[in-house]
Amino acid sequence: MTAGESGGIGDAVRCPCASGDAYGGCCGPLHRGAPAPTAERLMRSRYTAFALEDAAYLHTSWHPSTRPRSIEFEPGLRWRTLVIVDRVAGGPFDDEGVVEFEAFWQQDRARGTLHERSRFVREDRRWLYLDGEMQ
To answer: How many of the other CB atoms lie within 10 Å of CB of 75?
Structure first.
């Protein structure tokens, strides 16, 4: 999948990031190149990119100092929902931010969660994912 592709999801469909908005008014514009206004919006768009297996978007939204060479997806893993637990800074006038989240997944009959406290930085007016600590 290339940057900006939506993995077959339509703009009118509820966004996978659980914001309550339609994809076309939520993560869709970010996946097509619009900058995220906040660290949380970038985090939500990255969750959606994982759900849609959009490696190109994940790559471009990852800080070059910590970005992996490639991004692999687990076969059969489905991201079910996202809950924002906490946020510190990361607003439109900040240069750093932290977003703690819990993402629920399913793979065959197994279910689980990924709980991470993620750090973001803003460079050249664009938020980037820096790294995260599992909780």
So the answer is: 6
The tens digit of pLDDT for each residue in 18-28 reads 999 999 999 99
Closest by Cα among 134, 120, 1 to 61: 120
Closest CA to 57 of 101, 27, 77, 85: 27
The C-alpha atoms of residue 8 and residue 67 are separated, in whole angstroms, by: 26
Torsion, CA 16, CA 20, CA 21, CA 22, rounded to 10: 50
DSSP 89-118: E-STT-SEEEEEEEEEEEETTEEEEEEEEE
Give the phi and the psi of residue 70 in degrees, each rounded to 5. -140, 160
If you count them, how many residues does the chain have? 135
Residue 26 corresponds to which tokens in the numbers above?
């939520």
- Cβ distance 29 to 57 under 8 Å? no
Q: At residue 49, what is the residue type?
A: A
- In this structure, which amino acid lies at residue 108? D
pLDDT band for position 3 (cuts 50, 70, 90): very low
**Residue 98 φ then ψ, to 5°:** -130, 135
pTM, whole model, 2 decimals?
0.93
